[in-house]
Amino acid sequence: MALQNKEVDALVQKITGLHAAIAKLPSLSPSPDVDALFTELVTACVPPSPVDVTKLGPEAQEMREGLIRLCSEAEGKLEAHYSDMLAAFDNPLDHLGMFPYYNNYINLSKLEYELLARYVPGGIAPARVAFIGSGPLPFSSFVLAARHLPDTMFDNYDLCGAANDRASKLFRADKDVGARMSFHTADVADLAGELAKYDVVFLAALVGMAAEDKAKVIAHLGAHMADGAALVVRSAHGARGFLYPIVDPQDIAGGGFKVLAVCHPDDDVVNSVIIAQKSKDLHANGHHRGHGGQCAHGTVPVVNPPCRFGEMVTDMAQKREEFANAEVVF
């Protein structure tokens, strides 16, 4: 335990120093200094760690909240920069690999789709999806539309009109995905009746950065989404909670949802993923009409990434086939 506490103290000290250095930067727009500091920050936060950032002291919590705001601002500027760069091409979608973290979005969207397909009862074949907090580079919607949901319409919502203008330009030359992609400038708190038309709603990690704000957003979705609709919430785990807000599954259950799965990747997919379903058997306060909410008893269904399970099964099948076809020599 002492060794673990020493490891946590060393990590918090390192993150505190990086926060101080980032806060002193004259601008968070992409530059060698900005890129170097955020690369060092991500490198420090991604490996598995015993830290529980929700239990840190007030000073560390204040530092973490400020760091998440800086990360949000820097991420927005990075995406805007690359969105403008991509928009200069005749078909921007042919050049998405220029963005340094594009593969991370590919892997995250694959994970989310596979979790939905595995844990939502009856699977998913959504006619319409909403992505809340899509930003100037709506990679998640694009990857889901192009690779996993070829018949689905996507409504992307963001508070920033400039972000939506940038995003819409990326799809101007694509007759398939572009025709299924629309962008709306709106606060999720102002959405009501339209939320009922979606089969799946994705909630970006940086929508409602404070815990109480995130809980309010989830409760609002629970009040207006259709019964049976799925909710995908991006969260964080361990030291990755210095980069993104951590969402408590209790808040999701309290918003009128049944939590189906919680997944904490340990690879280059930084965000955790929580899959939930709007339940007609839940009151607005999140309790079952019978014996209380699923998460009220602490039985949060934490699962492994299904993609790894699939790779394991494929590998085992190949080995069985190789063994069956091999010549036996005595």
Automatic annotation (TrEMBL):
Synthesizes nicotianamine, a polyamine which serves as a sensor for the physiological iron status within the plant, and/or might be involved in the transport of iron. GO terms for molecular function: nicotianamine synthase activity. Belongs to the nicotianamine synthase (NAS)-like family. The lineage of its organism: Eukaryota, Viridiplantae, Streptophyta, Embryophyta, Tracheophyta. It comes from the Eukaryota. Keywords: S-adenosyl-L-methionine, Transferase. The keyword Ion transport does not apply. It is an enzyme of class 2 (transferase). This is Nicotianamine synthase. SUPFAM superfamilies: S-adenosyl-L-methionine-dependent methyltransferases (SSF53335). Its EC number is 2.5.1.43. It comes from Triticum aestivum. It catalyses: 3 S-adenosyl-L-methionine = nicotianamine + 3 S-methyl-5'-thioadenosine + 3 H(+). GO terms for biological process: nicotianamine biosynthetic process. Pfam families: NAS (PF03059).
